[in-house]
Amino acid sequence: MKLLLAGEGANELGGWHHEEPYRTDEPGVIEALLKKVHPHGWAIVHAVKWHWIHKYCVGMHGAAEKRNIEYVHHKAKKLGLDAVVFVRDRDGKKNHKRQRDIEYTIESCEQTGGPAIIGGMAIEKLEAWILALCGEHNSESMNKPENRLADREDCPKNTAEMVEVVEGADLDRIPSDARSLRAWLDRARSVLGPQS
Q1: Is 135 left (phi over 0), alpha (psi -120 to 50) or beta?
Q2: For residue 57, what pLDDT is reported?
Q3: In what order do the strands lie in the sheet with 83-86?
Q4: Which of 17, 67, 102, 169 could tie 133 with a disulfide, CB 3.0–4.6 Å?
Q5: pTM
Q6: Helix (H, G, I), strand (E, B), or coil: what is residue 139?
Q7: What H or E segment, with its residue span, contains residue 6?
Q8: pLDDT digit string (tens) for 119-139?
């Protein structure tokens, strides 16, 4: 299965966050999560950072998040890839519309056929997912999970350390209140199939 990866920066994308000639094989959190769900049978072959996407495109109207997802879905289809994989931070309760736009667009793209989508919103940020993977409850109700993460003695300080947290996590022990993380993992399982 060939995948297109999309995200904001190094923590999500790892070495894929660099421009094409400068990419490295350093994994990011998304790739590490995919390996936890299903370690084999897929490969990332292309990546897009959200800010690389042109925000104005003729014929693509609507919310920015909708356009972003439609763009990466179309790009994956054009490249003959099997799935799009992304995480987007909600960045605050004020962004409920961003969350609704993302969920609606995932459903809409899936109905058009083409690449599957493993995607969703990290509430409030990717750091909340890292806290949940450390077993911390209520991580998704924190306004600034990065502050709580920094307060921990075992605080990951860079992408490689965040990936180590993912690699060492027991996905069956993620707190039940980490709903956005659990929903993302369920999508990944659904698309990638049972672990081999």
Answers
A1: left
A2: 53
A3: 43-49, 2-7, 83-86, 116-118
A4: 169
A5: 0.92
A6: helix
A7: strand 2-7
A8: 999 999 999 999 999 999 999
